Amino acid sequence: MSGEFEGRAALVTGAASGIGLAIARRLARAGAAVVVADYDEDGAQLAAGELETAGARAEPVVVDVTDPDSVQAAVRFTTDTFGSLDLAVNNAGVGGPSLPTGEYDVAAWNRVIATNLTGVFHGLRFELPVMAKAGAGAIVNMSSILGTNGFAGSPAYVAAKHGVVGLTKSAALEYAEQGVRINAVGPGFIDTPLLRETDNPMRERLISLHPQGRLGEAKEVAELTAFLLSDRASFIQGSYHLVDGGYAAQ
Ligand SMILES: NC(=O)c1ccc[n+]([C@@H]2O[C@H](COP(=O)([O-])OP(=O)(O)OC[C@H]3O[C@@H](n4cnc5c(N)ncnc54)[C@H](O)[C@@H]3O)[C@@H](O)[C@H]2O)c1
């Protein structure tokens, strides 16, 4: 399997931490040149340094996915630095507060939607023209199990992740003939810094929601993402794939 992405350039947003970092590592291990894009500048530098030390080609770039100019610049940086954009993972996301819809903070709503939904749109908006022109490319958008299930107390997050699934389907229909595959991944609750903010009783509750009796690991999401980006997934287009320890089977 190693070398499967040799000669391909990947842009991964939110790659300084958690799931994005695990994806960057997985793609780099299979030979991709990786742009580690994140608004955490130190984290992006550290992650890119780690990939380079392991023998990969990697560059950090500071990006704020809520800002279209910043995302456009990150896409341009990828093609300028590595000569192409073959793989993209629109992964950057935030959690937001836990409050019922009737009490939800309006500013928090706007921040979660701007990052988790509009941020994915910004990625597609600037990645797709490059890939369509090349006549090839593969994109994974990071949704969640909450892209199909509701979750009390997380209205903005749930709405954004449902939106990512719909956006993925529409873009996939538009670009299929041009050789670009776009799919979405729906992880269950994964043990990353995003989740470590939650207190212990909440963590125990989240674990109990998974029939496997544990949280997922970032590398398990990276494995599915790498598959969907690979030529092994050549007939997979516009669909939403769970990696959730059985959460949605209940
Ligand atoms: N952890 C989970 O349980 C879980 C489950 C399902 C889906 N997800 C999704 O996976 C993705 C990654 O989450 P994670 O758990 O690895 O979280 P994380 O907090 O470990 O990593 C998120 C990364 O995104 C970056 N980021 C946040 N806002 C940004 C912005 N505006 N511009 C650029 N970078 C930004 C952060 O700096 C961070 O490095 C998110 O979209 C999240 O919603 C996570």
TrEMBL record:
Domain of life: Bacteria
Keyword Disulfide bond: no
Entry keywords, A to Z: NAD, Oxidoreductase
Organism the protein comes from: Streptomyces axinellae
Matches recorded under SMART domains: PKS_KR
InterPro entries: KR_dom, NAD(P)-bd_dom_sf, Sc_DH/Rdtase_CS, SDR_fam
Alphabetical list of CDD domains matching this protein: SDR_c (cd05233)
Name this protein carries in UniProt: SDR family NAD(P)-dependent oxidoreductase
Xref: NCBIfam families: PRK07231.1, PRK12826.1-2
Keyword Cell wall biogenesis/degradation in annotation: no
Domain Ketoreductase, first and last residues per copy: 8-188
Family of this protein: Belongs to the short-chain dehydrogenases/reductases (SDR) family.
